[in-house]
Amino acid sequence: MTDVSRFGVFLPSFIWADDDAERARGIVEFSREAEQLGFGSIFITDHLLTAKRLYSVSFLEPLTTLALVAGVTDDIMLGTSVMVVPIREPVLFAKQVATLHFLSAGRFIFGAGIGWYPKEYEATGVSKSERGARTDEILDMMLPLLEGKTVTYHGQFFTIDEVEIEPRMRSRPQVWIGGGSQLADPSSPEAPRFAEAVKHRILRSEGWIPRPTCPPEDIRRDWEELKVFFDENGRDPATLTIAHENFMHFVATQDSGRARQKQHDAFLRVMSTERGPEYLEQVYLFGTPEEIVASLQARVDAGVQRFMIHTLTPDPAQLEQWVEHIVPNVQFPQLDPS
User: Fold this and answer.
1) pTM
2) Cross-strand bridge partners of residue 244
3) Residue 15: what pLDDT?
């Protein structure tokens, strides 16, 4: 039987029009239930603004919300997937991350990426064309700061001299980098391209989060490319954690059509209508419990070691159904005892 800790859950931090104090309390209850059920992690989405191309909702600020979760849980890991790094100022950002890591007793996983939503760059005075270079500079500064080092850095976008931050801990948070191959032009016949800059970010991190919309065949191809890249750069690929994020709404039925109808209703409370039902079914988890298990298994077979799954509702009953009907039926390779 699969260990539930291989699975994480996303906090339902989306904001609906009728949200109130009861929903805020519900986040606390959801977090406690996830830990009690044995899930290995609680993750949270980062969007400064409502990213209307994908979502019909906004989200709570991640680090503030995870600080609340840290205070009502004991052992479960807390993570972001992923923080939009280039829209932030690195020293303040490092201080916030270090504080959360300290308050959670070393439970924070720093999932980081370059983002994609144009209005978030515009609102923070960042050019989208600079997002990759800014991300690299911010990580260049943040990682040694989080390791307790005194940092002097003169870059294209940021300059600091002899800066250090506290609190200091024995180890910094794990860094998991989000990203993977993409088509520069969806109408192009060329194969998707896995950018060298992204591979270099993954090389210096502890984990990789393939894109949520990445189907199993793309994960497999990207993982094969990453393994070659790691070997070429003197790092064992086995030292990298591969964690996949996806969305799921469990429906207890063997009728695939009925399951999909209820799932689309649930998805549309959170997702925008722009991409359409066909696309949603291509990239997310739909169908009967058996079909969902098969979709997850295909991702494991492609190299995924851990999952972080979004629920489309704040109802913790979804988590109980996942533990009973989904998690035990997904088979991971046996870990090497050595």
Assistant:
1) 0.95
2) 307
3) 84
